[in-house]
Amino acid sequence: MSDTAHPVATHPDVLKNVLGALLGDRVKSIQVALDEVTIVVDAAQYVGVMQTLRDAPEAKFEQLIDLCGVDYSAYGDGVWEGLRFGVVVHLLSVSLNQRVRVRVFCPEDDFPVVASVTELWSSANWYEREAFDLYGIVFEGHNDLRRILTDYGFIGHPFRKDFPVSGHVEMRYDAERQRVVYEPVSIEPRENTPRVIREPNYGGLH
To answer: Quick one: which of 10, 76, 84, 86 could link to 98 by a disulfide (CB 3.0–4.6 Å)?
Structure first.
């Protein structure tokens, strides 16, 4: 098997410089941390940057391997001061053996919207539906944006930091009506604080 079949992985610092030259001022930042390259891009530049990352000869990110939503409220013990909702995408170039993470923030906290990249990578379809379902992020241009994990009658978005642990409604089967019914949650909300018990010589420690 020839060496060209398995190219050596691009060093993160080299990839950072290559992508920096390729994308220029269309990105807000490019950083290397823990041997991973992360690009931060404005929502207005998101699709254009992603298409360049897919098509440019020095990038060739043929595969979108992951996409998720993030709620940054209370991030870093409450020190976060940026926009609340973001989308994080991981891309893989098989041909060049390199990876990159792209982060884009939704411009509005009250109605988070970013463009869909399903036209570039079909694998984004279910990932974007998941982020819509769990975080309420709307992907403009997605042709089938509906819930994928929660039930059709589900209220709210359960991965948002302000979503109550008990939910808003509960579901049960009503024998008299012979169907599933939804009712307000009957559990009183409460905050659980773990109790720490320290015993002498616990675990054999002195």
So the answer is: 10
> Residue 184: helix, strand or coil by DSSP?
strand
Token pair for 74: 């209370």
Sign of the Cα pseudo-torsion (37, 42, 45, 48, in order): positive
**In contact, 117 and 92? CB cutoff 8 Å:** no
- Helix ranges (DSSP H) in the chain: 12-23, 46-55, 75-78, 124-135
Say how far apart CA 90 and CA 64 lie, in whole Å.
Answer: 6
Is the CB of residue 48 less than 8 Å from the CB of residue 55?
no
Give CA separation, 67 vs 64, 89, 91, 99, 138, in Å.
8, 4, 9, 14, 14
Q: Phi and psi of 204, rounded to 5°?
A: 80, 10
Instruction: Render pLDDT for 147-182 as a digit per residue (tens, 0 to 9).
Output: 999 987 788 899 999 888 777 777 788 899 999 887
Sort 187 into a burial class: Cβ within 10 Å, 0-12 / 13-18 / 19+: exposed
Could you tell me the two tokens for 56? 């440019």
Q: What is the pTM of this model?
A: 0.82
User: Can you tell me the distance from the alpha carbon of 51 to that of 36, in angstroms, rounded to the nearest whole number?
Assistant: 20
What domains are defined for the chain? Answer: 3-149 (3.30.460.80)
Cβ pair 134, 141 in contact under 8 A: no
